[in-house]
From TrEMBL:
GO terms assigned for molecular function: diguanylate cyclase activity
Organism, as annotated: Fusibacter bizertensis
Keywords: Nucleotidyltransferase, Transferase
Domain called GGDEF: residue spans: 171-274
UniProt-listed Enzyme Commission number(s): 2.7.7.65
Name of the protein in its database record: Diguanylate cyclase
Gene3D superfamilies, alphabetized: 3.30.70.270
């Protein structure tokens, strides 16, 4: 490889320090000349290629052992598939238009230890001129582990949607069974929909993975506040549904206060929750003194439908 010291003519100490910084920087750096040949690669990227750089050709795709050209005796940019390469197209645009292009999320199959593996990178391209020569500096962050984790999480989340539906169905069945067996005529039960208002801020700042972790931690926190006969389910992305059987409103206020006081170990912010509450008065049959199951089922799901439409922090009274 025709590796050169790009900064060899810069005698100032600041540039010598800069040269050393680039060499040992944990972010990979590769420099191309105007012919798209690699003329410099820093220590981070040399380690990445396991010392096999002497086996690679000088062109950009070849150094990455792109699977489109690997084993074909072809060079990067010489086969039909190269026209569809997002990275190559951005490299050419940055070099030709002399413009910085940031945050290129790029993936491709690479040959590693004779196996095809998918790699992800976040790349920034910076054109620069040293003397009369034109170069392109590619700053490369390997996102492969992060993206693999994200993909695995999202695949798990697809399964979780079905599990959440099952959880909600179990919750509804448990609530109606509790009303039938434990709530007498004139008793009061509460259905409470809780919204976590901080969630959108966390997603905006840190992304969905951290948001989901926060929601899970609050869910566990609320669950530990409840007694054995009180129920909770994860109703939607940032909503929980509580059932407080035959209890006073004080129980609900205690839970709301506790959640508002909750402080995450990671996010140094207090949540502000919004509640929507159905106050359900239980009515039993005058003769049998038991709850009419058909009427309970109908009124319960009417109440659930109404719950989602209530104003913030409001209470709606029904009979079941």
């Amino acid at each position: 490889m025709k590796e050169i010291n790009l900064f060899e003519n810069l005698k100032d100490d600041a540039f010598k320090i800069f040269n050393e910084f680039i060499e040992i920087n944990p972010i990979g750096s590769i420099v191309l000349n105007e012919h798209y040949e690699i003329v410099y690669i820093n220590e981070k990227m040399r380690r990445y290629f396991d010392g096999n750089l002497n086996l690679a050709k000088d062109l950009f795709g070849n150094i990455f052992r792109c699977s489109q050209v690997e084993g074909t005796n072809s060079n990067c940019g010489t086969i039909r598939q190269c026209k569809n390469c997002n990275l190559r197209n951005n490299v050419m645009e940055s070099m030709e238009k002399k413009t910085v292009i940031r945050n290129i999320l790029w993936s491709n199959n690479f040959t590693v230890d004779n196996e095809i593996v998918l790699k992800w990178f976040d790349i920034t391209l910076v054109p620069m001129k040293i003397g009369e020569k034109q170069f392109l500096w590619a700053s490369m962050i390997d996102l492969t582990e992060l993206m693999n984790y994200k993909i695995e999480y999202e695949m798990t989340h697809i399964l979780t949607d079905e599990e959440r539906t099952q959880e909600k169905n179990k919750f509804h069945d448990a609530v109606m069974n509790c009303i039938k067996t434990n709530c007498h005529s004139g008793g009061t039960a509460y259905l409470v929909l809780i919204d976590l208002k901080i969630v959108s801020s966390i997603q905006e700042k840190f992304g969905s993975l951290w948001k989901n972790d926060y929601v899970a931690s609050v869910y566990q926190y609320i669950k530990e506040l409840l007694s054995s006969e009180e129920l909770i389910c994860h109703y939607s992305g940032d909503q929980f549904l509580l059932f407080l059987p035959c209890k006073g409103y004080d129980t609900l206020r205690k839970i709301v206060t506790a959640v508002n006081d909750y402080k995450s170990k990671i996010f140094n912010e207090e949540d502000r929750i919004v509640t929507r509450t159905i106050k359900a008065e239980v009515v039993t049959d005058y003769v049998t003194n038991v709850v009419n199951e058909d009427k309970l089922h109908l009124e319960y799901f009417k109440a659930i439908s109404k719950l989602e439409q209530l104003e913030e922090n409001s209470v709606y009274e029904v009979t079941v």
